[in-house]
Amino acid sequence: MHGQLVVWGIARPLLPPARVRPQGGGVANIDDEAVFAAIIYVLVSGCAWRALPPCFGASKSTVHRRFLIWSRAGVRGRLHQKVLELLDGQNLVDLSRAVLGSAHVRALADLAHAGWQPSDWARIMRQRRRKTVVACDVCHDRIHSEQPARSLTP
User: Fold this and answer.
1) Contact assessment for residue 138 and residue 80, using Cβ atoms and an 8 Å cutoff
2) Distance in angstroms (rounded) separating the CA atoms of residues 43 and 37
3) What secondary structure letter does DSSP report for 133?
4) What pLDDT does residue 13 have?
5) How far apart are CA 35 and CA 60, in angstroms?
6) SS3 category, 14
7) Is 135 helix (H, G, I), strand (E, B) or coil?
8) Rounded to whole angstroms, how far apart are CA atoms 86 and 101?
9) What is the pLDDT of residues 63-83, one digit of tens each?
10) 89 to 4, 43, 83, 136: CA distances (angstroms)
11) What pTM does this model have?
């Protein structure tokens, strides 16, 4: 439980502010900490969103919606960076091993949405006629938020 409190303390300032309805009213937001705990539960346990236990006090649709909002806001990447900095400050990071993820697109045309300017990685993928990219978690998040990834060699 102590570790979860530490992670929540790091994550809380990274969360975007709750959206306020200009006309007022509506249902009060579920506590961010409860939603965060539910998201961590799903990610760590591998449980499907629809199988989320009710003990978190938030519906599966609320938890999933908040996960999407926070993901699009870049919370996961920033949280990952902060935790790495915290661990590195205590000499607990060993970069002799690293985990990479990969992504595969159905068609190279999928890399160019209407009105979207291709980033470096998309342009290079099309030039090389590749459909698979391998990236670290931080670069993966940056790619999905349409921010430039770290340097790419053409």
Assistant:
1) yes
2) 10
3) E
4) 92
5) 10
6) helix
7) strand
8) 23
9) 999 999 998 888 988 888 888
10) 19, 26, 10, 21
11) 0.60
Q: How far is CA 86 from CA 22, 73, 81, 82, in A?
A: 38, 21, 9, 6
Q: Which two tokens stand for residue 25?
A: 């009213």
Residue of 79, 67, 71 whose CA lies nearest to 37: 67
Domain boundaries in the chain? 2-89, 101-144
**CB-based contact 34:56 (threshold 8 Å):** yes
User: Do residues 137 and 77 lie in contact, with contact meaning Cβ atoms separated by under 8 Å?
Assistant: yes
- Report the candidate in 61, 72, 63, 58 with the shortest Cα–Cα distance to residue 42: 63
112-123: pLDDT as tens digits: 554 455 566 666
Token output for 36: 């965060």
- DSSP string covering 50-111: GG--GGGSS-HHHHHHHHHHHHHTTHHHHHHHHHHHHHHHTT---TTS---EEEE-S-GGGG
**Ramachandran region, residue 146 (left: φ > 0; alpha: ψ -120 to 50; beta: rest):** left
Q: What angle do CA 19, 84, 49 make, to 5 degrees?
A: 45
- Tokens linked to 152: 């790419």
